[in-house]
Amino acid sequence: MASRFKQLTLAEFVAVLDQFPFTRRVTGVHMHHTWRPNRAQYAGRASIDAMWQYHTQHNGWSDIAQHISIAPDGTIWTGRNWNLAPASSSGHNGNRLAGPFMFEMIGDFDKGRDPFDGAQRRTALHVVAHVQRHFKLATKSLHFHSQLSGKTCPGSSIGYEATVQEVRHIKQNLGSRALLAEPAVSEERVVELLRTLSYISIASRARGLEAEALAEPAEEGMSRQQLLLLTEPVPGKTAARALQSRGPGELTAAQRQLLRAHVVNLDQGRFSTDGTFTTAASDVDALFDKHLEQALRAARKAGRPLQLVLYAHGGLVSEKSGLAGALRAIPWWKANHVYPLYFVWETGLGGTLGALIRGSRARESGRGITDLSDQLIERAVGPLGGQIWKNMKDSAEWASEADGGGRYVARKLQQFCAAHPAEVADGTLRLHAVGHSAGSIFHAHFLPTALQLGVPSFRTLHLLAPAIRVDAFKQHLAGLVGHGVDQLTLFTMRDQLERDDTCSLFYRKSLLYLLYNALESGRETPILGLETCLRADADVSRLLGLSTGHQAAPATEVIWSNTTEASGRSSSTSATHGGFDEDAATMESVLRRVVDQTDIVPFPRTRELVDLWHEPIELPEEVVMLAQLQAEFMAKTTAKPAKKAAPPRPQPASTNGHPRQRALCIGINDYPAAPLQGCVADARAWADALKHRGFATELLLEDEATRQNILDRISSLLTTSRAGDVLVVQFSGHGTQLQDAGRGGDEDDRRDEALCPHDYARGAFVLDDDLRTVFRRVPAGVSVTFFADCCHSGSVARLFGAPPAPVVVDQRARFMNARASDTDFNTLHRAFRASLPANGNHPAPADAGRAAMRVVNFSACLPEEVAYETNGSGAFTTRALRLLEKPSAGLTHRQFQDQLRRAFSRHSPVQHPTLDCAPTAEELPLLQALTATAPRRPRRQASAAAR
């Protein structure tokens, strides 16, 4: 996962300080030194990341302790959200409403250690002065850590009175002369830094921060173990640990080459396009068409079968851990003449659940580690953790859907097998599958998909501590035994070991019990890997031979850990749920069953085990935000009403008491002068996505999408609606600018923004004035959302723009430049408008302000930017539909906009989707019926900088 911390200059700090949207009143400044790392140990970003990891994973805090860190060279590193209380000094941290601004200086400033001098000293003093100036604080609002605790921090060599005098001198001169002889800070840079400084960590979103009111850095009180966590160099660690310490892109060339031939990396079911390691369809093509073909030829030449194992890891591990596990195991498989294909599917559940559990446990400190505390953790973690677990299961299912990366692999596997029928028939080509924990859920969808596509039977299926629900196993996998899966082997722990296992040290049972009791949709949901659940279900018990008087089917076997045999075909010694894939006895038993022989190369036993519950959190932030919203929504919908609460006011509804959902999707590729490629596909994709959400959809495509038809169809959609209906209008095509045709000069830049219909060449544009006039007809109580994937789409109420940026080779801009064209479109349009009937020549609306808007408008880019399409689809459409496919109950317009912005964070050229609507509509739920009692949700702090 990429480090989120940014390095900035003092001038940039001052610029951001002046523009940051503070909702928290700063009452003082707290000054610290890190002690460790000291100046000599400082390693740039790696040191900041190490502090973050130490504070979050070791201390269990929601984020790094400090608001900023000041480096020896005087530069500043971003830290905790400035609107959140720091972990500065026990009892003095404040809260979300008020409290100190806290900074750390990299170094050990006790006497005889690092000197407090140079650029670092200058920056530290100016930071204090500027924060005090901004909040009109007294000079002695500066507090050393040593004044608030028994520490020497920020160092015994730094005198308080002398520091206060220097800060006072700087403040006296701030208004009289420039102290920052540095280049001016661009607005783009300020926006970037505001977004970074508004970051709210997963743990902060998931729980309150009351436990951190008493938190403070250990500093000179650190133990030796704590010092190693902050200062140990990466080269001293094992290969797997070193990979987890690296940032994205730091795999070696040899590692990448190995992974490319054996790993398919997925994110939310689709090929992963960012992170440490990416996968594209072309990589999968090469895996089958090149690498597997070579492996099959080598196997035939050696006179042995090609054993192909498709491996899906568990849901606890992050992307880096999944890759590290693959890097370690692939050579072992290959040494045993097995070709592994690893699905790494970026789950990262362990670190997230660990943070939630530690947070819930901190709030219940003092109660003791008992079953009671387990129940408290289950109640605390269940709502949010359950939604995250559901998203992870959804990701496993999405991989096998029509556009999923798993289904693409299944098609390639079918083609590979079909190209070698003789090898399949004589056993030269053999297929196997292994799934650990949630990997069983992945295979529950992948294996049926592969078999439906015509892939031959799998010789073996091994499920290690399967986290799949019993009913899902019966639905998707049980019927395959003997009909697509020749042999099923289930490795799992006896019930006592499940109860002796722990999650993040505090929950005193295994992950499967946490699923059973809290994370699934209902309490005590049967999980396949739990012995009690296996024996309780009559069908499963009969299939596996666990019922009294029943023999296991010849094609099934259960292997219980801990077995008395340390090796063999039926051995397992794992004592933890997460340890099966690293247990030599288990993995060697799997291998012996795959190759059907006992003489094997032993499983490597030298790896330094990683505590998955304390891994850095790597789930996508939008996934956790969405899970939080869903948990809140579920809590509201299931909460019992207060006894004296007034009866709810009736909600406007349509036919049969239910809101109608209707959509009009418009797409145009066939522009004579500047054809596009992805707009019709976009319209169809929007229509399909909305159908899945229950909308009745209409398409208006190509030459049917004339100006008159567009306006007529939108008008008809509105006039035939009634209170409670939910409407969507979507447009993909060219956008442009024309000279302002309105008499009153309603546009700030004297230009109208316009959609380009199919008949634009005769001047028939759809102006922003036209759209405003049409949307003024929205009936009361009707929800209307407009999605515009074109240039100059920033607002249907007040658009303004600039010429487009240059287009890169593999992208097309959805912009029709009316000003630069040989055709005078402005003249054509004026003539066209003059020829319209009087009732069609709409005057410019007078109510163009945001407060008067009757529609919620999501658009592809800022007014001064260009909207792009790539690979036959609009960049905006691709990302918006990906978000809409996720569960979104309770998601507000503002929150959906925030997710869209983050989805474009790595897009090049720059493109920032926008939201334009009445301020009161920002916090209403997305694509939901309006209600007379719709609550207003508090705006998240992260939204302020993202606007």
TrEMBL record:
<feature type="domain" description="Peptidase C14 caspase">
    <location>
        <begin position="660"/>
        <end position="918"/>
    </location>
</feature>
<feature type="compositionally biased region" description="Polar residues">
    <location>
        <begin position="563"/>
        <end position="576"/>
    </location>
</feature>
<dbReference type="InterPro" id="IPR011600">
    <property type="entry name" value="Pept_C14_caspase"/>
</dbReference>
<dbReference type="InterPro" id="IPR002502">
    <property type="entry name" value="Amidase_domain"/>
</dbReference>
<protein>
    <recommendedName>
        <fullName>Peptidase C14</fullName>
    </recommendedName>
</protein>
<dbReference type="InterPro" id="IPR029030">
    <property type="entry name" value="Caspase-like_dom_sf"/>
</dbReference>
<dbReference type="InterPro" id="IPR036505">
    <property type="entry name" value="Amidase/PGRP_sf"/>
</dbReference>
<feature type="region of interest" description="Disordered">
    <location>
        <begin position="563"/>
        <end position="582"/>
    </location>
</feature>
<dbReference type="InterPro" id="IPR050452">
    <property type="entry name" value="Metacaspase"/>
</dbReference>
<feature type="domain" description="N-acetylmuramoyl-L-alanine amidase">
    <location>
        <begin position="24"/>
        <end position="155"/>
    </location>
</feature>
<feature type="region of interest" description="Disordered">
    <location>
        <begin position="637"/>
        <end position="660"/>
    </location>
</feature>
<dbReference type="Pfam" id="PF01510">
    <property type="entry name" value="Amidase_2"/>
</dbReference>
<dbReference type="Pfam" id="PF00656">
    <property type="entry name" value="Peptidase_C14"/>
</dbReference>
